[in-house]
Specification:
Blueprint (H helix, E strand, L loop, with lengths): L2 H8 L3 H9 L7 E2 L5 E2 L2 H16 L4 H12 L5 H16 L8 H14 L8 H15 L6 H23 L4 H35 L2
Antiparallel strand pairs: 1-2
Length: 208
């Protein structure tokens, strides 16, 4: 398809498509003579992935490029793309904040122990969770252990849903793409559902 057709098919302006090509996010099309360039189905799918990460996941162009490079690495395991997506999403979600305190890191490790999880010491989420604990403390609302344990249990359910959905896909390439999309957009989905649940629970408790 020509760039005009790709633009119409994906709802992406032609100038934006050319920008993604220049930035290394989208492979160049095939030159077929003159100024004609042909694009295929893989371009349409990649465009949708790029826009999902940029527009809904709110990642930077640089973060999207990093994720896509991991996605395109030949023979790389799904876990490699998962890690790249986690790193990109997490850095975008918690930019320029102070390092977590040792006491907050100890509390996160205690949550992990109580949950019976394997060692998570090198996962980027450990530092993020500790930063949040510090933020609550600094705001004058220290979090009790049962609060943290409830969040850990909910996070486990979300992780099970993520990996179960990925596991039903027969194509490893599609599995890896879903890992990326799910990691980037899953946080946004969780945010939306949490807002709704808060409203529901607030309404229910007000009527008791």
């Amino acid at each position: 398809m020509l760039i005009s057709e790709l633009s119409e098919r994906t709802g992406t302006p032609s100038a934006t498509i050319k920008y993604y090509v220049r930035e290394g996010l989208l492979p160049a099309g095939e030159r077929v003579g003159g100024n004609r360039t042909i694009y295929g189905e893989e371009h349409a799918r990649r465009l949708k992935l790029i826009r999902a990460m940029l527009e809904v996941g709110k990642l930077s162009v640089a973060a999207v490029r990093t994720v896509l490079e991991a996605l395109d690495e030949p023979g790389a395991p799904v876990a490699h793309a998962f890690d790249a997506a986690q790193q990109a999403v997490s850095r975008s979600a918690v930019p320029d904040v102070a390092p977590p305190s040792p006491s907050a890191l100890e509390r996160v490790d205690a949550v992990v122990d109580r949950a019976g999880w394997a060692d998570c010491g090198d996962n980027i989420g450990r530092g993020i969770a500790a930063q949040v604990i510090d933020a609550f403390d600094n705001a004058g609302f220290p979090l009790p252990d049962d609060y943290l344990d409830s969040y850990a249990a909910a996070a486990r359910l979300q992780a099970e849903a993520d990996l179960t959905t990925v596991g039903v896909l027969p194509d490893p390439a599609r599995m890896t793409e879903l890992v990326v999309v799910g990691t980037v957009l899953g946080d946004t989905l969780a945010l939306g559902l949490r807002r709704m649940a808060q409203a529901v629970v607030t309404s229910e408790r007000s009527m008791q």
